[in-house]
Design goal:
The chain is an alpha/beta fold. The chain is 39% helix and 16% strand. The chain has 2 domains: 89 residues, Rossmann fold (3-Layer(aba) Sandwich); 134 residues, NAD(P)-binding Rossmann-like Domain (Rossmann fold, 3-Layer(aba) Sandwich). A 6-stranded parallel sheet has the order 1-11-8-7-5-6. Strands 3-2-4 form a 3-stranded parallel sheet, sandwiched between helices. Helix 2 crosses helix 10. It is globular, with a radius of gyration of 19 Å. Bound molecules: nicotinamide-adenine-dinucleotide (NAD). Nicotinamide-adenine-dinucleotide binds next to helix 10.
C-alpha cells in the first residue's frame, strides 16, 4: 500500500474534545447545556445505529439529547406538528430528522419545516442557499467534516481538480459547492459525477482530490485513479460477513487495496469520514446553542 491514511477517528476525537471543552466554558458561564432533539421514524437498523452513535457522542461532549421516536405510519402532517413543537421550544437548540424518512413523507418538505436556525444538519434550503453565496450558515456535517480533515492534513484544494462522485443533497452536491467556491476552503476546479455520467473513469482519472459518495462497494478501482490522488471514501454499505459478530461489515465505495496502491492519501471505511460527520454535528449543535450563525 502506498497511501497514507486520513485518520478520521483520531481527528474526530480531537474535534469532540474541543467541543467538550467549549461546552464546559459555555455552561460555566451559567448557560444551560446545548440540546439536540432527534426525530427517528420507523425501525431502520442502520438509522437506529446512527442515532445511538449520535446520542452517545452528545453525552460524551456534554450536549443534552433526546430522541422522539415515531412509527413509520406517521403522516406528514403529524410529523410537521412534532417538528413545529421543537421549533417553538426554547430549550431545543438543534433538530435532526434521521433520514431516510418513509416513502410517503417528502424529505424536502419535512426538512423545510425545521426552523433553519435549528437545522444543525444543514439541509434546509436557507442554509444550503446561504452556503452557496458564502454567507454564515450551518454546513452539512459530512462535507464540513471532509473539509476539516483536508485542512488538518494540510491538503490544499486551491487550484486542484476535485472530482465528486455522487450528487445527493446531503453529501455530493454541498461538497461540490464548498470546493468550488472561491474562498479559503474551496478554490478547486470541481467536477460532479452522478448516475447519468458517461465514462466515469474519464473524470476520476483526472482527479487530484476524489470524493466518492455513492453507496456502491467497489465502484472505484485502482485503474480509475491517478498516482498521488487524495481519496475520500464517504460510502458506507453493510455487506454480509458471517465471520463478524454482527454478521456484516461496513464497506466503502472504493476497492481499498487497489486504490490505496496508487493514492497519496486515503480514508479508511470505517474510521474515516463517518466519525467526522458525528463530530461536526456536535460542533453545529454548539453553534446553534450559542446563536453563533443566526444571532437573535
Ligand atoms: P444517495 O443515494 O442520496 O445518492 C447517491 C448518488 O450517487 C446519486 O447522486 C447518484 O446519482 C449517484 N450514483 C449512483 N450510481 C452511480 C454510479 N454508478 N456512478 C456514479 N454515481 C452514481 O446517497 P448519499 O445519501 O449521498 O450516500 C452515499 C453513500 O455515502 C452511502 O453509502 C451512504 O451510506 C454514505 N454516507 C456516509 C456518510 C458518512 O458520514 N460517512 C454520510 C452520509 C452518507
Amino acid at each position: 500500500m502506498g497511501a497514507s491514511i486520513l485518520d478520521g477517528k483520531m481527528l474526530a476525537e480531537k474535534v469532540r474534545a474541543s467541543v467538550a471543552a467549549d461546552v464546559k466554558v459555555w455552561t460555566g458561564k451559567g448557560n444551560r447545556p446545548p440540546k439536540l432533539q432527534v426525530v427517528l421514524i420507523g425501525e431502520n437498523p442502520a438509522s437506529n445505529a446512527y442515532v445511538n452513535a449520535k446520542s452517545k457522542a452528545c453525552e460524551d461532549v456534554g450536549i443534552d439529547t433526546h430522541t422522539h421516536t415515531l412509527p413509520d405510519t406517521v403522516s406528514e402532517k403529524e410529523l410537521t406538528e412534532v417538528v413545529s413543537h421543537y421549533n417553538n421550544d426554547d430549550a431545543t437548540d438543534g433538530i435532526l430528522i434521521q433520514l431516510p424518512v418513509p416513502e410517503h413523507i417528502h424529505p424536502l418538505s419535512i426538512i423545510e419545516a425545521i426552523d433553519h436556525r435549528k437545522d444543525v444538519d444543514g439541509f434546509h434550503p436557507m442554509n444550503v442557499g446561504r452556503m452557496s453565496v458564502g454567507q454564515p450558515c450551518f454546513r452539512p456535517c459530512t462535507p464540513a467534516g471532509i473539509v476539516e480533515m483536508l485542512d488538518h492534513y494540510s491538503i490544499t484544494t486551491k487550484g486542484k481538480h476535485a472530482v465528486v462522485v455522487g450528487a445527493s443533497n446531503i453529501v455530493g452536491s454541498p461538497m461540490g459547492i464548498i470546493l468550488s467556491r472561491e474562498n479559503s476552503q474551496g478554490k478547486a476546479t470541481t467536477t460532479i459525477c452522478h448516475k447519468f455520467t458517461k465514462d466515469l473513469t474519464k473524470h476520476t482519472i483526472d482527479a487530484d482530490i476524489l470524493i466518492v459518495a455513492v453507496g456502491l462497494p467497489g465502484l472505484i478501482t485502482g485503474q480509475m485513479v491517478k498516482e498521488g490522488v487524495v481519496v475520500i471514501d464517504v460510502g458506507i454499505t453493510r455487506v454480509a460477513d458471517h465471520t463478524t459478530e454482527k454478521g456484516y461489515k461496513l464497506t466503502g465505495d472504493c476497492d481499498f487495496d487497489s486504490v490505496a496502491e496508487k493514492a497519496g492519501w486515503i480514508t479508511p471505511v470505517p474510521g474515516g469520514v463517518g466519525p467526522m460527520t458525528v463530530a461536526m454535528l456536535m460542533k453545529n449543535t454548539l453553534l446553534a446553542a450559542k446563536r453563533s450563525i443566526y444571532p437573535e
